[in-house]
Design a protein that fits this description.
With about 170 residues, the protein is α+β, with helices and mostly antiparallel strands. It has 4 helices and 7 strands; from the N terminus they run E-H-E-E-E-H-E-H-E-E-H. Bound molecules: coenzyme A.
């Protein structure tokens, strides 16, 4: 049974390998300190409470209105509150089995809960180039400043009616 929990000391960070060294490094060496400093919270997917099948990191963020497409009609100078999906990675042993999508949906569900409490217009990802098509498959669209800078509005996420089996703890 897969559980989604905040990264803690019990998790085996050393064994995790998603195939991208910077994302392995972040999990092993940076994620816990970021959480301690309230700069970002990392959640891991784990079956046994020790091994890590995947992880994602969320943080509060803002994007200037002018960076969104004009169709969203934001004032250019307004800082639009969003949630940053700062990291998302799956262990290579699970690639290509639909788990990345499941992890993304769990992250989006969490972002919806954040938006319900504090207001957040969209989820934003600064995607690695080779992962851009993965996010676009689920409706993410490019912001105007960079083709790897993607957003998905909360309006769209709510329409997805996400119902994860397990609440993130
Ligand atoms: C990107 C990543 C999370 C995808 O996870 P995954 O478990 O392999 O993906 P899934 O099996 O859930 O794939 C879901 C769908 O997305 C597609 N997909 C997955 N990765 C893709 C990619 N890089 N480009 C295009 N499509 C992709 C799959 O083909 C699948 O489509 P289908 O439903 O039509 O068959 C994973 O490859 C990973 O961790 N990569 C290394 C870290 C990384 O790049 N993270 C993104 C940081 S921004």
């Amino acid at each position: 049974m897969m559980q989604y929990v905040k990264l803690n000391r019990a998790h085996n960070r050393i064994a995790f390998d998603c195939g991208v060294e910077s994302l392995n490094h972040f999990l092993k060496n940076v994620a816990r300190e970021e959480a301690d400093r309230d700069l970002g919270v990392t959640y891991v997917a784990t079956r046994d409470g020790v091994s890590i099948s995947g992880y994602y990191t969320l943080a509060s963020y803002s994007v200037q209105g002018e960076v969104f497409p004009p169709s969203l009609k934001f004032s250019a100078t307004r800082a639009i509150p969003v949630t940053l999906l700062g990291k998302l990675a799956v262990d290579t042993s699970l690639h290509g089995q639909g788990f990345g999508a499941q992890l993304l949906f769990q992250a989006l569900y969490d972002c919806q809960r954040v938006a319900d409490i504090a207001g957040s217009n969209a989820v934003v990802v600064d995607a690695l180039k080779n992962a851009v098509p993965f996010y676009k498959k689920y409706g993410f669209l490019p912001l105007t400043d960079n083709e790897s800078h993607l957003y998905l509005t909360l309006k769209t996420i709510r329409k997805m009616q996400l119902r994860p089996t397990y609440e993130t703890q």
